[in-house]
Amino acid sequence: MSLLPHERYCDEIVLRTEALRAAVNGADLDATVPTCPEWTLRDLAVHLGGAHRWAGEIVRTRATEELPEDRVPHFTPDGDDPAVLDAWLADGAARTAEVLREAGPELKAWSWYRDRSAGFWARRMAIETVVHQADAALTAKVPYAMAPDLAADTIDEWLDIVAFAQAEGEPEAAELRGAGRSLHLHATDAPGAEWLIEFGEDGFTWRRAHDKATAALRGPLTDLMLVFNRRLAPDSDRVEVLGDAELLDFWLARSSFG
């Protein structure tokens, strides 16, 4: 598994935000987001725009510790006007991408993850936007599509994050264990886009591989990514679950933090 180029992540922050803005434009901002029912569509947009600006400020200031939200300039939009929200989203994504481009992937900055670099934040914000673009599209009932390499990287990154959470003792992730069981993800439209998650007594490991498993999730790559991020139900007719479906449910229920 290799990362996408740093510049690509920076570009995708802007491009995925443009797609999210297109989904939000003209939609009911008070509509409940079905995949994040505690949020309205406006809440979703404000969350993402704030995350962009927070990450950008961490990198811009080369922060050595977590940055409080009240130290992030324009962390929230000024008022409820949809046009103001749209401009605020666009400006935040563009500014954050520019900060990350200028920093380069190796610049050191605080993060909650083991990788404390601008490269981590570029990837994290690009993929955060990939997932929340899906939330916006589902809410606004507009089509959603994702480039295969970015969809695959979204799965890779989430597996890394769940493994990190387990190593750090996060309670839900700590339960992802049990020798002799395995979960296989198989994209039917992207050669080589397959993952094998193997559960052991001390936790789980993962790798890109094709192998028999206790349970398998098959379908188009974007749909696999959406299921894995709990944006598409595993019983959807867009994917197929083979073998022990309860194992997939077990994984999804214990990787839902964050």
UniProtKB/TrEMBL annotation:
PANTHER family membership: CONSERVED PROTEIN
Presence of keyword Isomerase: yes
GO molecular function: isomerase activity
Designated name of the protein: Maleylpyruvate isomerase family mycothiol-dependent enzyme
Mycothiol-dependent maleylpyruvate isomerase metal-binding domain boundaries: 16-137
Keywords: Isomerase
Highest rank taxon of the organism: Bacteria
UniProt domain MDMPI C-terminal: residue ranges: 149-249
A Pfam cross-reference name: MDMPI_N
